[in-house]
Fold each of these.
Amino acid sequence: MKAGSNLLNAVSAVALTAGIVVTGAGVVTLAGVAVAEAAVINRVDVRGNSRVDASTVRGNLTISPGASFNNNDIDESVKRLFATGLFSDVQISVSGSTLIVTVAENQIINQVVFNGNKKLKDTALKNVVQSRQLGAYNDLILQADVQAIRDAYSAIGRSDATITTRLVPVDGGRVNIAFEINEGDRTKISSINFVGNQAFGDGRLSDVITTKKSGLLSFLSRKDVYDEDKLRADEELLRRFYYNRGYADFRVISSFAELDETSNEYVVTITVEEGERYVFGDVSVESTVPGIDSDSLKGLIETRSGSVYSAKDVEDTIMSISDRVATQGYPFAQITPRGDRDYNNRTISVVYLVDEGTRAYVERIEIRGNTRTRDYVIRREFDLAEGDAFNQVLVRRAKKRLEELKFFSSVEISTQPGSQPDRVVLIVDVKDQSTGEFGIGGGYSNTDGFTATVDITERNFLGRGQFIRASVGGGVDTREYSLSFTEPYFLGYRLAAGFDVFKKTDASYTGFEEAVQGINLRLGAPITENLYLTTAFKYTQTKYSGITTVTSNPERNAINRAIASGSHDIGALSYTLSYSTLDDNVLPREGISARFTQEYAGLGFDSNYVKTTAKASYFGMLSESADLIAQVTVGGGNVVSTGGNNLRVFDHLFLGEETIRGFDTRGIGPRVFNGATEVGAAGGTTYFNGTVELSAPLPAISRDFGLRFNVFADAATLYGNDISAADFGTQTLGGSSMDLRTSVGAGIMWASPFGPLRVYYAEPVVKKSYDKIKKFGFGASTRF
């Protein structure tokens, strides 16, 4: 190409002196008047244009009257005119003191149509092609459009689709473009085979990769579409999986797909070499940078001698040390892990070496591939900006944050040399994915009958990274409505600000109907990568209707007496500390999730109390090969009055199916009795709960189908009560002792193409005669 370009320049130079012109189409013509190497013209004459104004042609020339020019100016002018896409041919010649520019205009596109397409709608294809109505026709662009349509069909598993074009001239120098499409059959994946794996079965490894075998509902998820780039990404997922489980020598020998043209199905084969499993040996920190004390960094090490080798633990340690030394004034410090394998003992000793790294700065951050998500949503996940010191650790952290957003199906960050030796350009390649969900949930109880909820959620509203959810639900006697919104970067800071507006009516009580409405204002900020703080103010207004009077109903229960005023307002401040090391928020296999909340109600409103709740869950793998996951959850709560009076009945704590399955909402704890008849839940002041759960893939069914079963045992107790005795009248309070309830059950979880779906059946084992039972529950959600 370079030799050809030099030849063209040489020919142009000779041609100018001989009165010969080289046209943009590569045609040589005789100009009639010789032009010197440097010449001057007095005017520009534009010929051949009918739709394009002559001033547009002159504006794209590097030659102007009165200024000298040479063959390079002519070459550049030709290139600029072709780059406009308005012309099919350009010729420049000189006649005396006049520069003659002769153009042949491209036809104007009158209409772009698609024929034969069913799987991809016209709107989707119009977003793929560059040819546009009223735009200039260009043959090169048309060829690129054909390839773009092929790629679009390959992305949905129709790689054998064929596309041809048909041009239909119409009056006025216009043309209609028709893309004739034969969509062909859908290409599927008949099997995914792993070769060389011994520590983990094919089913477990199939869970790790994103490419899936074709199944009954694969046409909804499109995960069975073969794509070479996706297969390369799957190789990286397998490496991470093995590296984090001790297999430091793991490597992918090969991965390929063979197409059976008779069945139009791929067979994917991935050959691996697992190697030996290692544990950490000695772990230490060394520093060559004056002013950095190695001993002070040892507390940041997350790798421990004797524990299974994990590349993630090594990376987390690097990030922690990098953050510490950067805050000490060493932004260019480089942390390098130096591993020493002991093949006999199967250990890896690691030394974290802190060196003064190369001084380099970020020249710019270039973002590509985001068709929906705004650039600033991606940029704000970086802790570095243009002009900052380049830090590879911060780049890896930004990549992790972008992946955790779940806005993108893939995130890749690479570097290119900048304009100076100490400048680096960051290239961020992303691919947007669906971030909306449509959810359905419900259940059945022997008191309220069937209940159902429907909600719509968008996690990347208008591509701004904002969260919004609208929900409506209810049953025979209840109605619920809510709207939530969160801005994750309030005022440009890493502050999540949001609100929740809600309303609920409940006519299931004895003797009255309750209507609750209010608003919750939230502000949250990260303390560390795993610890998060949220503060909130919540205002709730409760109104009651249909309340019977004392004279007409002397047997009115304690709940009626407590709300005789007809309304009640609550203003409460709260804070929540959340901690999470979960490896996945949808189906966690390892990690800890914990939450602690305290709420203070008062502020001049009707309720005065301090409410404290806590919950912690641990997830761990009992068997990697069987994908057997264990979950242990414990929790508790307490509420005390701070206003010198007894607690209002609805300020108490209530427990039910959300804590102990097999029991209904407000199903356990202290009750109000009229003689031997139970008339309502009174709530409690203290509760404790615990859950043990095991889950595994459903046997005899392919794991690619996403079905898992779980068995569980729940236990909880709710006791204590602070309702004034005067509120009971002739009625009594029962069930306030610390009586334990337990239940056992089983369920099925389906990671369906519509989203996660859960169904369970729970049988109460230890219960009281007055408890409210709900043995069956279900829920579902879907992305859009």
Amino acid sequence: MTFSLIIPTLNEAGNIDPLLSGIFSLDTLGNQFEVIIVDDGSTDGTPDKVRQWQKTHDVRLIERRAQPDLTGSILDGTAAARYEVIAVMDADLSHPPDRLAALIQPVVDGTHDITVGSRYIAGGNTINWPFYRRWLSRAGGWLARSICDVNDATSGFFAFRKELIGNITKNARGYKILLELLMTGQGQLRIKEIPISFRDRQHGNSKLSLTHHLAYLLQLITLAGGTVSLHTASRFALVGFLGVFVDVFIFQWMTGHGASLASAHISSFIAAASFNYALNSKWSFRLHHAGHLQWKQFARFLTVGVFAMLLRGAILAWLVHTWDMPAEWAIFPAILTTAMVNYLGSAFYVFPRTEPPVSTDIRWRIASVGVACFVILLRLVYMDVAQLIPDEAYYWQYAQHMALSFFDHPPMVAWLIWLGTALAGQNEFGVRIGAFLCGLIAMAYLFALACNLYDKSTAMRSVLLFVIMPFGFATGLAMTPDAPLIAAWVATLYYMERALLANKSQAWLGIGIAFGLGILSKYTLGLLGIAALVYVILDPVARRWLLRPHPYLAVLVALLLFSPVIIWNMENNWASFLFQTGRVGNTQHEFATHQLLLQIATVLTPVGLVAAVLALRSIALHYREAPRKHLFIAVFTGVPLLVFLAISTFDSLRFHWTSPLWLALIPTMAWMIGQNGISGNIPAQLRTAWRPMITISLLAYAFVLHYVTLGIPGLPYQFLSEHYFWKETTAEVEKIAGEIRQTTGKEPIVVGMSKWSAASALAFYSKAPVLDIQSRNLFGQHAAMYSFWNPIPAPSGRPVLLIGMKQQALESSAATGNFEDKLINTGEIHSRPVYRQDGLLLRTLYYRTAEGYRGNTTP
């Protein structure tokens, strides 16, 4: 085989002889190759060692006089090479010479354009490397995988066609030229990884330093389309430093004059951001600015600024309200944290690199990574500062009454909350950490599923679409049964695809576990079992599984996991099963299909609804190209959808019930974004529509979270009077209870006049002395699990305090007959305003007092 082997050197005198001896002793290489050693100014006699080999072997020495640079050395060596196949390896004996033939052959044969000696595929490993070097190498590889599809993109052992070097930019520098090569084909190159055993150097010193690692990060960002460089970063940092003075001065002045935390930080941020934009556009990113105000660019700057501002509000709220840090000090870490959002947003979105152009695929990949990271950060910060909604408080009550199952839901949500609060305490973070982890699990399984069905780029876009859709964002933050359901649903789909399409028998165990955990989360997951049966019946290949034991063992595993629910229902007269089946098909029929379409548009976004319809159409049009794959997607989306459509013709559904069924279709929706020319110009139009939809969705989520924690100046809380701010409301209820206690000398019974919302929220936020909290089952009305937890008490002379989420709840006469005397102040319902600490009105509390409870008299 004919090839040129390039070996960059810098003070490698002790390694030259053993390295070249090992190479020229290999019979597998033949004798039609040359070795080009490019020395970068060694001072230890390395060139003299090479000259000795020049006398007897086809070895050439190039001595560079420029600034030492690994990429520059390889470029110079390639320019001098005689052959069309180029191989590169280090001189430190870390790369095994005996793998050269396997590395070069695919390129020589013409079957591949680039081959990479990989440490991180099956058969590859690293030997005698310290832990920190392994960690840094792995981290570098993972970062690079966002823009390329190679497991070991930081490898220095690779081969390529010489012509590819012409596509590398002239200013390419750094120590990872492989990344530059991988990006030249914009995804069109044929790449193969060869496993190698990498050994740490035995002679000499490593040339890697902190500067090299920073240069690698800058190289990654530049190749991804950002304008990040040490030049722009240093100028941006200086501008940011000056902006901090503006920011802090205004913030401190406003808080010192009684302004709310929200008003102060928003005002100071806007002032500082405007100051920063003026200097950054004219100085930091001057080469990427037209020299005059560009409204499109300025709009992008405002968008990034709003994202950073809303995130900063979360950090401020977290530091001030959770960690009790004074606001005047909390502003500093908040500014530092969000500065990175501003910088990366400016580099990639406001002032992106335009020359050489970056492919649309890479742009979508980077957008996927950026959006996913922002969503994860948003959830992580807000999960501890946003108060629980009543649903979450109700499921927290589950965890306070642990059981095998519960009346209205299986027990998974209770188990997760119990574990989270046991580890993190009885707080919002402890309640929600399970939902946060379920969100990460769902993202990982969706990525893997989309990779199997399509490709990596589609998988990254699938995660992007998932996290910006309302159901995907919410289920990773709010601790409801939907959080584990979504994770289990997509995990079941992943293992279903592995079993039914890839024919992996071991995947059936995964199906059994994922399905069992999913049905422990919510009964809706049973629809996947029906869909699986339909697919097996329709697909001749999958039908063979009916004659094998694996599916039946999976069913057995799922049943074993589901057995706590069965046992609980047996012990409670099948209460949960009867309740769930009775929710559909009651005597009052209602046509609600039109409502179902609105609900789907809500959980998917309007653009998502259009994309879903087009994705189903695309599956039909391209069915013959991959019939089994398209049948899989159609069945696992269509069967649950048909069930909900059928139910909607005679009964209304909850708006979020259809959420998980779209998980099977999201990969196709994401795949369409990367296609051109399908069904006319629709994909291009759809891709255009997704961009503002993604931005609007993220802004909406961040805005709402900021609104409920810190507020938005000028926007009152009139929209949250019923379901939020129970922490402050509970404090007011405790005051009323204290007044009753002081007046009567008796401990009042506090009754939340709703099925479970008011009682649960009051219970979570009640402080010592803990209130005696009941629900409306006290008056014979059904109150979900409260009817099990709190049986009707005996007649009591204690006063009763009735709390309503709204006034109408207290106007009902249902409770009147349960008291010997009429309600005190008959017909009068009291109300009290509920304020935040800074004096902002949050909501109105409605309450009523009574005495002489004589037990439930409702027939």
Amino acid sequence: MNTPSNRAASPQGSQRTLRSLAATVVITAAALALSALPASAGAASPSGSSEGSPRPQALPQIKATARPGSGVVHLSPGQRRRMLDQVTDAAPDTARSLGLGTREKLIPKDVIQDADGTIHTRYERTYAALPVIGGDLVVHQRHGARTVTYASKETLTLPATTAEVPAATAKKAALDKAASKGTRKASAHTDPRLVVWMTGGRPKLAWETVVTGMQQDGSPSERHVVTDAASGTTLNNAEHVESAQGNSLYSGQVTIGSTVQDDGTYALIDPERGGHRTLDSSATSSGALVTGADDVWGDGTAADPQTAAVDAAYGAQTTWDFYKDRFGRNGIANDGRGSTSRVHYQAMQGVPLANANWQDGCFCMSYGDGADGQHPVTSLDIAAHEMAHGVTSATAGLGNVGESPALNEAISDMMAAAVEFYADSPNDVPDYTMAELDDLHGDGKPIRYMDLPSKAGISAVGYAPLDYWTPQTKWSEAHMAAGVGDHFFYLLAEGSGKKTINGVDYDSPTYDGLPVAGIGLTDAADVMYRALTVYMTSTTDYAGTRTATLQAAADLYGSDSDAYEAVANAWAAVNIGIRFVNHIAVDPMPTEPVAEGQPVSRQITASSSRPGPLTYSAKSLPRGLSIDRTTGLMTGTPDKAGDYNSVIAITNAAGDTRELSFTWTVLESGGHFFINPTTYVIPKWGTVESPLVYRGKPGKAPSDLKVTVDIDHQFGNAMVVDLIAPDGTVVPVKPWGPWVLTPDLHETYTVDASAVPAVGTWKLRVTDGTPGIFDLDAGHLQRWSLAF
């Protein structure tokens, strides 16, 4: 059926009108069979239950004003290609200037130019012609000054580039590992490739095997299994197909791009968006191009197979337009190339797929028809979420280690919400929930709540989405850990407290109970997109994302702006980093107990979003301590034990003051017992020393000197502890081992120190002997003592 009003001027392409009736909505995260359980059974909060989370009031939204020259120059494909050619020619000189080794090379991946002339070039790296996974970096050239963002700052060197483990052995191990993770019909169509694994620790020679097959729900599987080429240990086993689950979304009447073919029929090929193609995969997984005799597609019901194709094509074009209109991005990979959408995808012949997914390999989205085969999983939320995975892959390339997978999912949720608000459809009113029109649980509730993620309840993996960051976040399932990023984004966009947006009620808490002012969805998305495309790398975690978004906010609005403070405060509200109060931010105060008679040196680290220096003052410090007015360094030797109600005041050049009150305890230390309660960070694979002054009886130390050590570390048995006597003699306290992954170390050891003098400064030396195969967090020497 053709009508004149639907005709385009060009015979090659047109915008077409379609009819679409009501359908139900869907989640845009991975395949997760969620059950509706009480929210209080979910994520971590200060009180251990989201029901007890602080509920700060709502604040007026911040008006973010763009900094002059902060915009991005929209490059044409030809301009971008020429710039990439230029940085490719200059790559050897760039590598040398960065101090990279002679066996290292830089391969340009992307280039971005700011309106003020700043150039950001993203590089992959090779070592002895081998790809380096986790070795990517971004060079920022600003007005003659250069900074670099590294995925890993480890020195890239290997003892050899010849594998001890044969490729065939690595391939077999990879197939077994993929099968153990649920990959069915696993196969490796290509041989393993030799790579350098640089993610999460020291560089290692490794085999990367790509194993394909099917996931448990029938989605395509593409597992990248990385095997240590020296030991055969599996270093990584990650699924690279990003999936979602749910039912189709009603989009109302929309327009989509189509192309007139030579025989006069029409095909769902969008000529204005890189030739995006929509395929029907009901017969074969590869799919057949969706065509029709006229240019009206679908009848708005799942019974018409074209309806799902309409939803998929509409989702693809709306997401394309969002990135182009908002950021000047020319397609998912910014190269003008259209992706492919495959609808009616099946888990296996005749078995419907309940999910949707994105695959880098085919540069495509695949949409199933729901568990019952009657509800195509083709909502706008899903399309935007899945294509955002493609944008992330083409830019930061977030990996599959630590918190990077969670960030990958969270960024897709953020951009899905932004696309929904961009589309502003009356049939799908924009909101910060997902699956809000679907009754997937039978309770009429959404599956995603960005204002309080834990409201989604317990998932199939046995956890609720996290509201706040904890040290365990890096070990949490990616879609659950993504709740931290979702919550941050909502707070940055809309702020905390109760409010109603487009008829939907929200009430977003904060970790510290303090309010957060939002900057609006548009500016929040701008900050997140710039952070992703300019400053984030394959290994970025939540703390790194905070740094990246703060730099992005500084670029866009200035580091002295309220928007910059809002970014910091939104992160603090999910327990990541510090917040600004009165325009002053202070690192956690170093106020753990001190000891009588032991020298103290504690540094206050603070900053202000307002220009000029800070000044410091203090009241009621422990007797014997004082504070430097200009540096904030507290020094001295406490001479009286007790509790002191101390107050630190920090003032910026504008006259804003922030006061911090706390009780500072001075422990007794003398006679036969001497203690140093100052906390020291134990660097990963590094060494730290803590001093302790003994002023007792002269002569030799006892043969039964008691050394008490309190260390927090995920592998306490790997810590090597030595005592350094006042004359420099090393007295062993604890050797490495045993080989048991035991957290923390709280022990008292007896050592023979009768050969060394007692009086003077003793030091406890702790060395992190964690094997390089483990990527564990840095530990802390909490305190230690000597009993003579």
